[in-house]
């Protein structure tokens, strides 16, 4: 049969944002695929060059509205590296707690999107219901549900309110039970199994070669987690085991994210146990010179900020490395040989966030 | 501590004179400054001899008198990152592509070409990726102006500087 190209996007329920996936099909089988991105390009790296170091945190929050704190946190780490700034112990632990809260909220948002992609509308309602609790916790500590503007260069904006730990533990205990229900809904659904098991497979070698990181890489059997390998903040002081699956298909990616939410809950509890007293913010210099880069384990993979200062109060150059940017261009490897109907199951499992991809 | 020292020593042994600068940035991070002609030999050495398998990031910086193409390469097995700053003259912004070595470099080089106008020789598909195909400029260059006045009033401007 003659091969032809089909556009899935830029407006398509599968895309979760504005981008275009061109697929080349032979009948129902996908021969090749080609993502087209840039619809949401806002020129972040250029805009950041005219704003002061601290004011850029407002911008980095909006890189990905689902995962604001982790992005601003990565930016602050890079700036601290450049300025040679020490962060107080308490701030390090508060950062771990807020990062992990944000990670759970982000993964739940992914789950809420992935369920309806595959016709499992229950997941949307349930996951968003659970996410609301984590957004409440984030609101309790930062004052906002989204785009929190919470991390600061040199620490965090404000201390945790009284009883914050109590509320966290309460939510986590509740969430652990609910997570088991979620897993039952997904894993006992024959439909979900048929659409994800063995679909969108990528080998570990290919994934590393194409720059895939985060849960997508850990689903291929690689125990690569930057919280372990290049630890920052209080992560080296807390013991945890990153979630790993081995099959490399859509189901493994789902499994890793579900396990990761549990790991995040453990991390939050451990950080709350160890949370030291003391100051939560140190004063950064207004002007800085030199370069600094820092990479963190974002909810979607390796986030890297490379900041250069030329002695002014604004960065000379900022580079944002988004994990989704690399992951999405590895998607053609996962798609070749699958059917057109599997595109949704594969792209959904990669967890695309267009805001951070297009910068 | 041992792994980054090993990488540092082997780079020094193999390329000693060709490197403009070589040093440790912090734990697990090595930085090397090179000329653009040495890029592919250094990268090949890193990949084949030292097991660097992951391209974290490729970016370009406009220093007004020259460009720099900055590579962040990672070896997951050794858990070491190398940052390579390759110097490129301002009037001839070309450098060899490392996409033949790592497929992950593909999109990052396209982005650097799109936004900074560095031409990566040997890249299989060097087209714009974020901006429209008919866009005429490379906006991250320092001679591309921004509407600073409308967006933001800097402290220096209030002070008359």
Description:
The complex is a heterodimer of chains A (359) and B (161). Chain A is of the alpha+beta class. In chain A, the strands form 3 sheets. Chain A has a 3-stranded antiparallel beta sheet with strand order 1-2-3. A 3-stranded antiparallel beta sheet of chain A has the order 6-7-8. In chain A, strands 4-5 form a two-stranded antiparallel ribbon. Chain A has 15 helices and 8 strands. Chain A has a single domain (51-330, 346-358), classed as Cytochrome-c3 Hydrogenase, chain B (Orthogonal Bundle), CATH 1.10.645. In chain A, 48% of the residues lie in helices and 14% in strands. With 161 residues, chain B is an alpha/beta fold. Chain B has one domain (2-158): NADH:ubiquinone oxidoreductase Nqo5 subunit (Beta Polymerase, domain 2, 2-Layer Sandwich), CATH 3.30.460. Chain B has 5 helices and 7 strands. Chain B has helices spanning 2-15, 39-48, 105-116, 148-151, 155-158, and strands at 21-26, 29-35, 54-62, 66-75, 80-89, 94-96, 119-121. In chain B, strands 1-2-5-4-3 form a 5-stranded mixed beta sheet. A two-stranded parallel sheet of chain B has the order 6-7. In chain B, a hairpin with a 4-residue loop joins strand 4 (66-75) and strand 5 (80-89). Chain B is globular. The N and C termini of chain B lie far apart (46 Å). Chains A and B meet through helix 1, strand 7, strand 8 and helix 12 of A and strand 3 and helix 3 of B.
């Amino acid at each position: 049969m003659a091969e032809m190209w089909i556009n899935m996007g830029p407006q398509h329920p599968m895309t979760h944002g504005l981008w275009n996936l061109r697929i080349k099909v032979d009948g129902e089988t996908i021969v090749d695929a080609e993502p087209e991105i840039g619809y949401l390009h806002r020129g972040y790296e250029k805009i950041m060059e005219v704003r002061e170091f601290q004011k850029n945190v407002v911008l980095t929050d909006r890189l990905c509205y689902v995962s604001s704190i982790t992005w601003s946190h990565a930016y602050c780490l890079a700036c601290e590296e450049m300025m040679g700034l020490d962060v107080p112990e308490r701030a390090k632990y508060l950062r771990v707690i807020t990062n992990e809260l944000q990670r759970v909220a982000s993964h739940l948002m992914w789950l809420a999107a992935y369920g309806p992609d595959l016709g499992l509308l229950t997941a949307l309602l349930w996951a968003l219901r659970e996410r609301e609790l984590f957004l409440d916790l984030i609101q309790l500590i930062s004052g906002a549900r989204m785009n929190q503007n919470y991390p600061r260069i040199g620490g965090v904006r404000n201390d945790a309110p009284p009883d914050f730990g109590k509320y966290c533990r309460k939510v986590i205990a509740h969430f652990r039970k609910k997570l088991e229900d979620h897993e039952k809904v997904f894993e006992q659904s024959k439909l979900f199994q048929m659409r994800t098991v063995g679909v969108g497979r990528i080998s570990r070698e290919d994934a590393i070669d194409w720059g895939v990181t985060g849960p997508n890489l850990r689903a291929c059997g690689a125990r690569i987690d930057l919280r372990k390998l290049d630890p920052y903040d209080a992560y080296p002081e807390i013991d945890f085991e990153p979630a790993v699956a081995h099959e490399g298909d859509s189901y493994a990616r789902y499994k890793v994210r579900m396990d990761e939410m549990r790991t995040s809950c453990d991390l939050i509890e451990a950080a709350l146990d160890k949370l030291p007293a003391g100051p939560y913010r140190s004063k950064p210099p207004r002007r800085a010179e030199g370069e600094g880069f820092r990479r963190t384990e974002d909810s979607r993979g390796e986030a890297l900020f490379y900041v250069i200062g030329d002695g002014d109060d604004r960065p000379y150059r900022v580079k944002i490395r988004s994990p989704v940017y690399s992951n999405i261009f590895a998607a053609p490897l996962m798609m070749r040989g699958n059917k057109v109907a599997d595109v949704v199951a594969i792209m959904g499992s990669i967890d695309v966030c267009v805001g951070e991809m297009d910068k | 501590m041992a792994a980054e020292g090993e990488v540092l020593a082997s780079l020094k042994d193999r390329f000693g004179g060709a490197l403009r600068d070589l040093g440790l940035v912090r734990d697990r991070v090595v930085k090397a400054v090179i000329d653009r002609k040495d890029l592919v030999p250094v990268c090949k050495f890193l990949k084949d001899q030292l097991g660097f398998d992951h391209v974290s990031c490729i970016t370009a910086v406009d220093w007004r008198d020259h460009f720099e193409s900055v590579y962040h390469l990672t070896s997951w097995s050794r858990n070491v990152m190398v940052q390579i700053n390759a110097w490129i003259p301002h009037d001839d912004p070309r450098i060899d592509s490392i996409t033949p070595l790592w497929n992950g470099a593909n999109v990052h080089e396209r982005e650097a070409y799109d936004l900074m106008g560095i031409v990566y020789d040997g890249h299989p598909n060097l087209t714009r990726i974020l901006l429209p195909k008919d866009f005429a400029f490379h906006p991250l260059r320092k001679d591309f102006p921004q509407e600073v006045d409308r967006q933001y009033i800097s402290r220096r401007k209030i002070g008359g500087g």
